[in-house]
UniProtKB/TrEMBL annotation:
<feature type="transmembrane region" description="Helical">
    <location>
        <begin position="26"/>
        <end position="46"/>
    </location>
</feature>
<keyword id="KW-1003">Cell membrane</keyword>
<protein>
    <submittedName>
        <fullName>Groel supressor protein suge</fullName>
    </submittedName>
</protein>
<dbReference type="Pfam" id="PF00893">
    <property type="entry name" value="Multi_Drug_Res"/>
</dbReference>
<dbReference type="GO" id="GO:0005886">
    <property type="term" value="C:plasma membrane"/>
</dbReference>
<comment type="similarity">
    <text>Belongs to the drug/metabolite transporter (DMT) superfamily. Small multidrug resistance (SMR) (TC 2.A.7.1) family.</text>
</comment>
<keyword id="KW-0812">Transmembrane</keyword>
<keyword id="KW-0813">Transport</keyword>
<dbReference type="GO" id="GO:0022857">
    <property type="term" value="F:transmembrane transporter activity"/>
</dbReference>
<dbReference type="InterPro" id="IPR000390">
    <property type="entry name" value="Small_drug/metabolite_transptr"/>
</dbReference>
<keyword id="KW-1133">Transmembrane helix</keyword>
<dbReference type="InterPro" id="IPR037185">
    <property type="entry name" value="EmrE-like"/>
</dbReference>
<dbReference type="InterPro" id="IPR045324">
    <property type="entry name" value="Small_multidrug_res"/>
</dbReference>
<feature type="transmembrane region" description="Helical">
    <location>
        <begin position="84"/>
        <end position="103"/>
    </location>
</feature>
<keyword id="KW-0472">Membrane</keyword>
<feature type="transmembrane region" description="Helical">
    <location>
        <begin position="58"/>
        <end position="78"/>
    </location>
</feature>
Length: 104
């Protein structure tokens, strides 16, 4: 259950970052509220995960999910252009996240 909480926290991080983009600098009320709700839920689930997982494990995995997830959202929904070399580093980030998880 603790890993579920951590993944949910990471997904809410992607959610709030996406909503922040859609809020256009917090000028759109609905998306601004969604950003704040997403932040609160992300931090809540992270706090649940850190009750049982070491902080040095939970935090980098949480931020990694948020980073990779935000890249995926940017590419597929906002049509961001990522160079092939950048994709190599994204894969390295994923390998690093998995490495942290499996060696902790």
């Amino acid at each position: 259950m603790v890993w579920f909480d951590l993944v949910i926290a990471g997904l809410f991080e992607v959610f709030w970052a996406t909503m922040m983009k859609l809020s256009h600098g917090f000028s759109q009320l609905g998306f601004s509220i969604a950003t704040l709700v997403g932040m609160a839920l992300s931090f809540y689930f992270l706090s649940l995960a850190t009750k049982q997982l070491p902080f040095s494990l939970a935090y980098p995995i949480w931020t990694g999910i948020g980073a990779v997830g935000s890249i995926v959202v940017g590419v597929f929904f906002f049509k961001d252009v990522i160079s092939p070399l950048t994709w190599v580093f994204i894969v390295m980030l994923l390998v690093g996240i998995l490495g942290i998880k499996f060696t902790a």
